[in-house]
Design brief:
transcription regulation, three-stranded antiparallel sheet, 2 domains, SH3 type barrels, protein dimerization activity, 8 helices, alpha+beta, about 40% helix, about 220 residues, Iron_dep_repressor, cytoplasm
Amino acid sequence: MKTTLTEENYLKALFHLVDNEGKVTINELSKFLNVKMPSVNNMMKKFAEKKWVIYETYKPLIVTENGKREAALVVRKHRLTEMFLVKKMNFGWENVHEIAEQLEHVHSQLFFDKMDEILDYPKFDPHGEPIPDKDGNIIAQDLQKLSGCEEGETVVFASVTLSDDAFLTYLNDRKLLLNTKVKIIKIESFDKSMTIEIDDKKEILSKKATEKILVKK
């Protein structure tokens, strides 16, 4: 049975919100989706019938393995689409999210499998986030926020936690792209803004920005 657009949006929210124990609260879903609590409750009861979550009143939801797989497959469609738009249609990474939001609801598995093949089976999307495979499996990454690094460290920009157009444009303006080596020159004690060096050029990043940049050592 095909999932509806609304169900897929809920599944994607579960993917982003679920904790390491497989739990998420109704309140978290309500805030994330900007949907009233009674509507979320009703949808989660339907998800429980489909065996995607374990639902008990006044308790956090437990996302089942089936639920995690269904959620990952929605995210797979979104991230593959973003990669296709960047690699094959020459969109900037800051311009693909909204288009992918629309195309991710296409139901044809063959369509996305072909997209995957044309792209030569990419493991990551344009923002550095892993693309789930056809079975919903996802690569675990050992990344940390740039804000948690120390002066003198050199790290590699690996991903972002926010694919907002304005933030990605902010990074573009500073020539800060994925896989760029970043040396941390100074961290201001007052506001935690950070002076970094990229290709012998210095830039200053706000604390808000360094919180949203993920790096690997």
